[in-house]
């Protein structure tokens, strides 16, 4: 196990579990969390045995309640990085989430309890979201702080739930329970509270058992599809498919196996 400030990582088999580790404040995000997420992602990049990542929150009450407002009040909410204020600060914070979106391997958010603000914006940067039945999801920046959600929520949320519903969630700060989140596509699965981590791990192992080159290629190609034209996406798909090692041999072998089974 490794720990970077308040973000822990444990690798078991080919699964890296990343835990936001401030349960006493519902895993609220302070400078340690922002920087720790980046540091752990960089470690994962250097671990070729990792095939899937799970992100979750410590304790049993929250994935993350969002920005630590008490830390923000005393100037300790964000990493002490020597950069210009304004857009550069937000770009640095966004990178803490984008780095997981851009990891070669799939990332699963395992969500229980509160998943608010920056917490939900982290979750929607992941490839999949597995929720416990007690999950409550909301983006409160407009309703509570009077600010625009600024770490990816206005861009990633519409890609999941559509522009109209995303505006409703972002503008009103309404809390969405697990079943409603499942209905609108904000989460992919809902499980009992004592089973949601098991479900996340089962999904991780299911994916990890498959050809990693194909899995990573699918992640890259779908990400391109969400931000480029169909023409660009189709060309990228072709290039990605052909980049899989031994792709021709694998297709031929699979076809032969299927043909043999069908003839029996």
Radius of gyration: 19 Å
CATH class of the largest domain: Alpha Beta
Q: How much helix is in the residues?
A: 40-55%
Question: What global shape is seen?
Answer: globular
Backbone structural class = alpha/beta
Low-confidence stretches: none
* Largest sheet: number of strands, sense, barrel closure: 7 strands, mixed
- Bin the strand percentage: 15-25%
**Based on the structure, what is the oligomeric state of the protein chains?**
single chain
Would you mind describing this structure in some detail?
It is a single chain. The protein is an alpha/beta fold and 264 residues long. It folds into two domains: 2-208, 2-enoyl-CoA Hydratase, Chain A, domain 1 (Alpha-Beta Complex), CATH 3.90.226; 212-262, no CATH class. Helix content is 49%, strand content 17%. The protein has twelve helices and eleven strands. It has helices at residues 31-45, 69-73, 87-101, 118-123, 141-145, 153-161, 163-172, 178-184, 196-208, 212-225, 230-243, 247-262, and strands spanning 2-4, 7-12, 15-20, 52-57, 62-64, 107-111, 114-116, 128-132, 136-138, 176-177, 189-191. It has a seven-stranded mixed β-sheet, sandwiched between helices. It has a four-stranded mixed β-sheet with strand order 5-7-9-10. α1 (31-45) crosses α3 (87-101), α6 packs across α7 (163-172) and α10 packs antiparallel against α11. The radius of gyration is 19 Å and the shape is globular. The N and C termini lie far apart (49 Å).
